[in-house]
Amino acid sequence: MVGAQWGDEGKGKITDYLAQQADVVIRFQGGSNAGHTVVNDKGTFKLHLVPSGVFNPDALCILGTGMVIELPFLVEELEMLESRGVSTANVRVSDRAHLTLPWHIALDRLDERERGRQKLGTTGRGVGPTYSDKVARHGIQISDVRDEKRFRERVAHELITKNTILEKLGEEPLDARVVADSVLAAASKLGDRITDTLPLVERAVAKDARILLEGQLGAMRDLDWGIYPYVTSSNPLAGGAAVGTGIPPRLITRVIGVVKAYSTAVGEGPFPTELHGKEAEDLRERGQEYGATTGRPRRVGWFDAVAPRHAHRLNAFTEIAVTKLDMLGRYERIPFCTAYEIDGKLTTDMPPTAIVERAKPHYEQLPGWSRDISGITDRALLPNEAKGYLRRIEETVGAPVGMVGVGPERTATLL
Ligand code: IMP
Question: Who's near 33: CB < 8 A, 6+ residues apart?
């Protein structure tokens, strides 16, 4: 299950729904930059690291190898869940995932500061610097904590360069002992939950178990196919799911693309259908569009079919899940972007960033349904205009709509 727009499509809710029938749920990339909002019988939760499958006590819940993990933060999240009556006994953490360490968080903030007006608008959770270190072969894998002496040496060694940079940028140097102590304490709390997850995945595959792979963010923030450099440092596409979990790609049989019925984005970068002023405020307030991780007001805009069509070309969705359709209930006519106009020509293909920056949205005006649909429990009972809106999504994106969200609760999902 992957995001087909800029992130924040409502994947938390869809995963929570699908996880009810899953035997295993695995998150395959990203770190605590994620903010999955889940509303269920236990309350409202904002999860940053733990897969939304944690609410199914029968599902094994894995933080996959492709993730980057700040261990003390993970311990806090697990303790928060436990304190609210959610068992976390089935959570496992890949010992090959990379550690996000305090210098990654500091460098994320400093990098944004140094970029000045060209900042990316990151979540400041150290995700980019952790992946940079991983790729540069300076990362520390979680399994490294198992050998305390070696781990302390690795931390001290990395800090030689990292502290030089921090001090040059006017920051206090970090103390290797303090950093290592905090990670080791968290690791000891996690105990056997830290494990080689490949045998678990292999066993699940052999048993023909239902395995749900949970992506963070969306195609537009994909490192390779998104609006570089305003992207995250991993691959939220379905292709990233194979590498990030250890499941061979040909075994992935179903790819659900999640799209919000309109568009939102947190952070910088091109967003052709973006609204401003009163119209934006209205939609933002209705949809409660504030970043789950940073609390930043999300940028909001009309549905932009070019983005999820781009995502479909890269993911081959077997179906689409449309979320928050109920938020569009008050409009008589709803602008719906089917193409971009770039240098006087219309295109439905997503070009690279430098060209999207010049794109103007080409709108159709679709009839609204001007009523509240949040109580509807059967898709057949949706107003004709809402059905027409969904049909237009199917036609422009190119995949069938299999699920429709008309409210935040798990039950407000029409099949
Ligand atoms: P980073 O992943 O924190 O490095 O941020 C890179 C870009 O992705 C920025 O534009 C962030 O606002 C955006 N981003 C990261 N995580 C999320 C998320 O969970 N939802 C929405 N946007 C996100």
Answer: 48, 122, 123, 125, 127, 216, 217, 232, 293
